[in-house]
Amino acid sequence: MLKILALDRFTCLLVLMVILATFVPVHGQAALVFGKVTTIAIAILFFLHGAKLSREAVVEGILHWKLHALVFTFTFALFPIIGLLAKPILIPLLGQQLYWGFLFMCFLPSTVQSSIAFTSMAKGNVAAAVCSASFSNLIGMFITPILVSLFIFGQSKHDYDPTSSIIEITLLLLVPFIAGQLLRPYVFPIMQKKPSIVKTFDQGSILMVVYGAFSGAVVAGLWQQVSWTTLIYLILACSVFLTIIMLLAFFIPKWLGFNQQDQIAIFFCSSKKTLASGVPMAQILFIGQPLGMIVLPIMIFHQIQLMVCGVIANYWSKQKSTEMQINQDSVLD
Predict the structure, then answer these.
(1) CA distances from 152 to 37, 40, 164, 245, 255 (A)
(2) Looking at the domain assignment, is residue 323 inside a domain?
(3) Which one, of 100, 283, 145, lies nearest residue 209 by Cα?
(4) Is 52 within the bounds of a domain?
(5) Residue 82, class by beta-carbon neighbours within 10 Å (0-12 exposed, 13-18 middle, 19+ buried)?
(6) Phi-psi group of 63: left, alpha or beta (phi > 0 → left; psi -120 to 50 → alpha; rest → beta)
(7) For the chain, percent helix, then strand, then coil, each to nearest 5?
(8) How many CA atoms lie within 13 A of 110 on its CB side?
(9) Tally of CA atoms within 13 A in the half-sphere of 256 that contains its CB
(10) Is the pTM of this model over 0.70?
């Protein structure tokens, strides 16, 4: 319950950032300074993620290649395919730029922290979730720009080269992550003494990026372009999309014969998209585009997925505890 309430607090803070950007947007020279501070915060966040991930978990997780292959297929194949197939329905409802944002969301890697947290909460294969979610984020730094180049800018006749974006994303996200891994023996003991530091940078950097992105969008006239009707359509589209993906992520691992713990890890790693990596990527990939319109779909999808996964993980956790209690009673009898 406390985890779900924490997610709700973060949702409220995200909404607050949007409201703040609507009425008090940062702009001009202040926006440039704020953007540089945000970039530093994101780099520190991924440094901490690198320091937090144990090498033992990496080795143990890597060996479970079938699970990772299925999560990879969901994240970078099934999501994009469904997103592209939905184009004839979504463009009339959302418009071109919001559809680009929706498609960009489909191209993003999975979440890291929430995938692991929900897998742990539901008593799934945590080691596999750690490795699968982390691998998804690392490989996504290269795959997402290529997919954007092929299916968004390729269709818009935009002169776009993914190579420079991959380099920028690597410098911003991957290099700090590797540095964190290398310095883990020195940094991780400090993190254990201050366990809230990753959460602070995780949520804080996202809030900063969202405020900066929406400030720029508001200055460019975002709320004159997005009506309440369009916003409701977007929420419905994200909800339906998440439902389809979750049903597939629930049944396909069963059909393929994965055990229950692996099924839980696959479900949570396959059905989510990252906001923490997604917004910084959008800043690099969509220079000159209305960034607020691009990140709005992933913001909405992210909040829906957190709330739904929180309920499901809590239910599975209680179900597992009940089963364990029944087994213990049977043994005693």
Answers:
(1) 29, 28, 17, 22, 34
(2) no
(3) 283
(4) yes
(5) middle
(6) alpha
(7) 85, 0, 15
(8) 33
(9) 15
(10) yes
129-143, 215-229, 291-305: the lowest-pLDDT one: 215-229
Q: Is the pLDDT of residue 101 over 60?
A: yes
Higher pLDDT, 331 or 67: 67
Q: Say if residue 278 is exposed, middle or buried (CB neighbours under 10 Å; 0-12, 13-18, 19+).
A: buried
Q: What is the mean pLDDT of the segment spanning 156-179?
A: 68
CA distances in angstroms from 124 to 7, 29, 246, 311, listed in the order given:
20, 48, 16, 15
pLDDT above 50: residue 331: no
Domain range for 18 is 2-318
Average pLDDT over residues 63-75: 89
| Res 111: pLDDT | 82
User: In Å, how far are 66, 72, 103, 175, 222 from 128, measured between CA atoms?
Assistant: 11, 13, 27, 23, 41
**Can you list the positions of beta strands (E) in 89-246?**
none
Q: How many CB atoms lie within 10 A of CB 227?
A: 11
Best CA proximity match to 276, nearest among 76, 21, 10, 25: 10
* Tally of structural domains, the chain: 1
Alpha-carbon distance of 286 to 265, in angstroms, equals 32
Distance CA(333)–CA(313), nearest Å, equals 30
Q: Is 245 contained in some domain?
A: yes
Mean pLDDT score, 199-208: 74
What CATH number corresponds to the domain at position 271? 1.20.1530.20
pLDDT band at 2 (very low <50, low <70, confident <90, very high): very low
Residue 237 forms part of a structural domain: yes
C-alpha span between 261 and 286 (Å, rounded): 39
CA 173, 178, 181, 187 torsion-angle sign: negative
3-state class of 313 per DSSP?
helix
Residues 6+ apart with CB under 8 A from 17: 207, 210, 211, 214
